[in-house]
From TrEMBL:
Organism classification: Bacteria, Bacillati, Actinomycetota, Actinomycetes, Kitasatosporales
GO molecular function, one term: oxidoreductase activity
Organism: Streptomyces phaeolivaceus
Classification via InterPro entries: FAD-bd (IPR002938), FAD/NAD-bd_sf (IPR036188), PheA/TfdB_FAD_monoxygenase (IPR050631)
Protein name: FAD-binding protein
Keyword field contains Oxidoreductase: yes
One Pfam family cited in the UniProt record for this chain: FAD_binding_3
Domain FAD-binding, residue spans: 7-352
Keywords tagged on the record: Oxidoreductase
């Protein structure tokens, strides 16, 4: 790139996708700066499931072994019929042990992944992570991008070769680039409740990951390590249109929800609660000139199936492979259009399609359709070939293969 004054890439957002993107660029010898508006890694209770396909990518970066000891290892997930209490089907990734390197997921909260990368790698001039720095402007030039941001010292500027927006669903990068965010917002909101009480003492047939179908109130239930050896159970439930956030978050209403889900003697110890809107949206393009999008900046989806963070990390790995070639002069920058085509295809045809289908499965109200769905799940889980195909798709292996075939 003869006319380029810098090869530095600016990554906006120090979440898991931004930090994996920065680490992958750094490993390819590209200087990188990360701007994060928050003062430190946010200890939010968001994504926590890292699928086998993503573990392979993180292993190539030297991360998987470092985080495994601090994670909950889970090979099975179960579908339950909430009204009857029946376990409808179980899928065991362990059955894929002869064909995938990591036949399990790691339950490892995204804020820990961010912190683990920052602590180990992000302290050098060529891997420069700046918290309390907020992007305010981008101006593309013939040879790079002029970046404006605010820091604790005031307004500042820097020059970058490319900017990668990993700054979430409300992405400033995407908005500054004028890229449309196409899709819809669900009319209902979700509530996520974390309790330190061991739900298995009340319902022993829980796996670490569970999906409860219910025509009136579906649920996702999964376990994470949290900050204690006992771990935390997270329960995600829908909230009706007529309930405001303050009511939903009140201790009495949270307790009522948990007791309705799993009645027990005494009250629940609640460590965390949050209400959030849920969107299914994909950016019209993941590239505009020297501006690129990855992760939630490029696509958002409901959390059923744990695909958002994983799809975002897949974006980051795909992008860094191509961006490194472009910066080295080994490929033209039209290779970045291929990144956009491949990863947008994966977002629309796999992450969006699968998460929308997952929600429909759990909330189905028609008794006949519910019976048909359950019979289909049982048949799928009961045979190795169909179970294998289901698990590979759910673990995003199919999305990677399909996207890679796009030229």
């Amino acid at each position: 790139m003869s006319n380029q004054t810098t090869t530095r890439v600016l990554v906006v957002g120090a979440g898991p996708v931004g930090m994996v993107c920065a680490l992958a660029l750094n490993r390819r010898g590209i200087p990188v700066t990360v701007l994060e508006s928050e003062p430190a890694p946010v200890r939010d209770q968001r994504a926590a499931t890292i699928h086998p396909s993503t573990l392979e990518m993180l292993d190539a970066l030297g991360v998987t072994e470092k985080i495994r000891a601090h994670s909950l290892l889970s090979s099975t997930y179960r579908f339950h019929d909430r009204p009857t209490g029946e376990v409808v089907a179980e899928f065991d990734l362990g059955r894929l042990k002869d064909e995938v390197r990591f036949p399990y997921v790691l339950q490892y909260e995204q804020y820990k992944l961010t912190a683990a990368i920052a602590e180990e790698y992000a302290n050098e001039s060529d891997f420069d992570v700046r918290f309390s720095h907020t992007l305010t402007g981008l101006t593309q030039t013939a040879s790079g991008i002029e970046v404006e941001y605010t820091s604790p010292a005031g307004p500042e500027r820097m020059a970058a070769a490319y900017v990668v927006g990993c700054d979430g669903g409300r992405s400033t990068v995407r908005k500054l680039a004028g890229i449309e965010f196409e899709g819809f917002t669900y009319p209902e909101r979700f509530i996520k409740i974390a309790t330190s009480f061991d739900l298995k003492t009340v319902k022993p047939d829980l796996a670490f990951r569970n999906y409860f179908s219910d025509p009136h109130e579906w649920a996702n239930v999964f376990k994470v390590r949290g900050e204690t050896p006992e771990g935390l159970w997270r329960v995600i439930l829908p909230i009706g249109h007529d309930e405001d956030d303050a009511t939903a978050l009140s201790p009495a209403r949270v307790e009522q929800r948990l007791q309705k889900f799993l009645p027990k003697t005494g009250s629940y110890d609640v460590e965390y609660r949050n209400v959030y809107p849920v969107n299914q949206r994909v950016a019209a393009t993941f590239r505009q000139g020297r501006i690129l999008l990855a992760g939630d900046s490029a696509h958002v989806n409901n959390p059923i199936g744990g695909m958002g963070m994983n799809g975002g990390i897949h974006d980051a790995v795909n992008l860094t492979e191509k961006l490194a070639k472009v910066i080295a002069g080994a490929a033209g920058d039209d290779l970045l259009d291929l990144y956009s085509r491949q990863r947008r295809h994966a977002a629309v045809n796999y992450v969006q399609a699968q998460t929308i289908a997952n929600k429909r499965l759990l909330e189905e109200r028609d008794p006949e359709v519910r019976r048909h769905n359950f019979d289909e799940l049982r048949r799928t889980a009961g045979k190795f070939d169909t179970a294998r195909a289901y698990m590979r798709r759910a673990a995003l292996f199919d999305s990677l293969q399909d996207a890679a075939a796009i030229t």
